Structure formats: structure tokens, C-alpha cells
Amino acid sequence: MKSIKFMLAASAVATLTVACNTGAESKNAPSIKAGVTKANWGTVDGKTVYLYTLVNDKGDTVTITNYGGTVTSFITPDKSGKYSSVIIGFDSLAPYLQHPPYFGALIGRYGNRIGDAKFTLDGTVYQLAANDGKNTLHGGIKGFDKVVWDASVANDTIPSLTLKYLSKDGEEGYPGNLNVTVQYTLTNDGELKIEYDAETDKPTPVNLTNHSYFNLSGDVSNSILDETLMINADSYTPVDNTLIPTGEIKAVKGTPFDFTSPKKIGKDFAEVKGGYDHNFVLNRKDNSLEKVASLSDSISGRTMDVYTTQPGLQFYSGNFLDGRFANHGNQPITLHSALALETQHFPDSPNKPDFPSTILKPGEKYHEVTIYQVSVR
Ligand code: BGC
Fold first, then answer.
1. Model confidence over 187-231: pLDDT tens digits?
2. Per residue in 113-142, pLDDT tens?
3. Does residue 102 line the site of ligand 1, with CB under 6 A?
4. CB neighbourhood size of 285 (10 A)
5. Can you tell me which atom of ligand 1 is nearest the CA of 137?
6. Is the C-beta atom of 116 inside 6 A of ligand 1?
7. Domains and CATH numbers, the chain
8. pTM above the 0.85 mark?
């Protein structure tokens, strides 16, 4: 029997001991107990922070903290039945408070960048915090990734966690009280499903996403440049040297951005200055939930399919990861040791009238869904 290195809620450990058996043994894993457990993880802003452990009936496990709504791990078996996390993260709260680059976090009110940290809406100029050079990134100085969300566990057969946050009128410079609900569900088909809902009392830009970084091999000493990616996007949004879209929608055909057929990430990597950090314009007819990307890794045999209702996907190849933080198991998280596939609206949409609108108005309901489904093939 193999043991697992993650520090989880006490009651989940017993469950996982079974889930970590070798392939042959785990066929009979009789005591996998699907459900959600909760452990105290510390205090932030005078509020208690918890770590929630969601286990499905196969023994797949997702851990989420209500600090930043952060997914701290997603533990699944590889082709030999060995369990490890495909999402990078930490086993305690302290490193999250040192501001890692959004590992696993919920991002809002506006994911990605807004140029010059400002936008005009109904004739009013809204000034935001410039926290990325002259631009604003991922909601500003204290975005949704740095607040404590109210959490509740559904009394259901499928493990899920509901997080709520009220972003007050004027917070980080954005107009309107925005009531946000995010529900995480771990299905028995290995899907981490994320449902985002929001309502406002004044028109405001909204672009919610999750910033999990993946390394499907479960071991950050393996480069993600060796993983294979498909993105169902015939075009992308080129950026200036501050990573703000120029406004052009450019065809990927004949460029290093063509992932319409599965391609090793490293194949054309040298041709992309600074690495991939671009929004792909997903091929889709409407906003129904569709498969938009697929990532696979030959070492572990794992594949991850991404489904979303969103129009865009930011593929970020971990170009600024620098070894400052260590993953589960104490491995340094270095350049290109993990990647993000952030489902979203296009960056800088509030300043780009030709991009799909991100403005939510009073009376409207913001609703988006993204699924990361991990399997072994
Ligand atoms: C951005 C990157 C940024 C990273 C971490 C990604 O969404 O596109 O430019 O470095 O988040 O902040």
C-alpha cells in the first residue's frame, strides 16, 4: 500500500489510505466514503478559514479552502494506480498568504487584464488599481483570490461546496454590489465542475475564472512543455508588450498558436516570445457547455478535458514561475512546471467594444460553467 503525502482533513485520511492502494487492491476498495469533510485551516481578516475535502466514489479527491475559494489539490490515479495531485498547491494556509501567483484561486471581479487600469461605462471613468505595471490584473490588489468566502456544504450524494462573496460597491474601484456564488462539485466521472453565478445592483464588468495550474504528471519536476494540448480555437487575441490585446482577432493557422489538433506544447514554443500567455477565441456557436480543450501527459497516462460555457481560454504556460514556492511534496515550482487553462471572457473587454460584452446589468443573471475532467487513457 502506498501512502499519500497530502495533509488532509483527519476523517478524509482514512478514506484516502484505501484510495491509495495499488491498482489491484483498489478494485475492491470497499471503504471509499464519498462526501465532504472540513478542517480548520487558520484565520484571515478575523474570519475562520477551512480546508474542505471532497471525495467521490472512486476515491478522487479535491481540496478547496474558502480563503480565495482556492483549489489546493485534485488527486487522481495515474495509469499505474498511483495517486497524485494534478493541481499545484500547498498543504497549509501560510504560503497562500505570501501571495503566490493565484495558485488555484477564484479570480474576480475581472479575471485577466484591463488596460491602463481603467474603463468607461455609461460616461463615467472608473479608475482601478494598477497592480501589473500600468494595467490591472485579476481583480486588483485585493481580488476575490484574497478574501474569505462564506462556505456551505450541500447535503447531497455528489460532493459539492458552495462559496459566496459580496463584493461591495466601489471595491477595487468597480461599481455595484456584486453578489457572487461559486459552486464546486466533484462528480463520480472525475469532473471538477465549477459553476459561477452573480448579480449586481449597478452595471459592472464581470469576468470570473479559476486560476488552477496543472501538471498532469503530478510531479512538477516534469516540464509541461512535454504535455500535449488541443484547443478548439481557430483564432486568438494578439497582445502588446504589456499583454493587453491589440483588438485584433488573428487566425492561428500557420502560427505557433495552432492547437486545433493535439500538439506537444514545446513544439513551437521557441517561436513565442516570453511563452504562451494568450487568450484563445473558442470555436463555438452559442454559450452551451462544450468541450474546448484537452491536455494529455504520456508519463502518467492522464488526460484532462476542459468544458466551458465561456467564449475564451487563456493558455498560460507558467512563464513567470520562478521556484519561489514549493508544491505538495516540497518540490520547487519552477519555470514551465505547470500551466493554466483559464476559461474566461477576453482580456480588456471593457475597453474593446468589438469583444463580447462583459457588462452585467441589474436584473441580469451571470451564469458560467467550467469542467475539468481528469481520466486515464
Ligand atoms: C496571466 C499571466 C500572469 C498569471 C499569474 C495569468 O492569467 O495571463 O500573465 O502572470 O496569470 O498572475
1. 999 999 999 999 999 999 999 999 999 999 999 999 999 999 999
2. 999 999 999 999 999 999 999 999 999 999
3. yes
4. 6
5. 12
6. no
7. 18-376 (2.70.98.10)
8. yes
